């Protein structure tokens, strides 16, 4: 699945601050199953420039997958702060503003 980087950073921070964890690892995820093609569609939706995607040979996973974050919820109090679409919109806003800048 796709997870916005700020949610990953938040989950990592909670993990760093946690004490006496019962488990050695937890999953951090948006909890939203979204396919690669749906993600491409969101990227195109929020891009300032028309985009075209070419997918080469190989197999795409048609359905979205996500991770079970129940341990992160229980042990860290982690809940995603961004939906996949909100994350893509914020990221695209940053890219549209900064990627083509000439400093």
Automatic annotation (TrEMBL):
InterPro entries: NAD(P)-bd_dom_sf (IPR036291). This is NAD(P)-binding domain-containing protein. It comes from marine sediment metagenome.
């Amino acid at each position: 699945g796709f997870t916005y980087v700020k949610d990953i950073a938040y989950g990592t921070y909670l993990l760093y601050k946690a004490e006496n964890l019962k488990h050695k690892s937890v999953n951090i995820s948006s909890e939203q199953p979204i396919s690669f093609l749906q993600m491409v569609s969101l990227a195109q939706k929020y891009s300032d420039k028309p985009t075209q995607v070419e997918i080469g040979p190989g197999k795409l996973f048609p359905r979205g997958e996500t991770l079970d974050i129940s341990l992160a919820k229980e042990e860290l109090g982690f809940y995603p702060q961004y939906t996949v679409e909100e994350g893509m919109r914020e990221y695209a806003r940053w890219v549209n503003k900064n990627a083509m800048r000439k400093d």
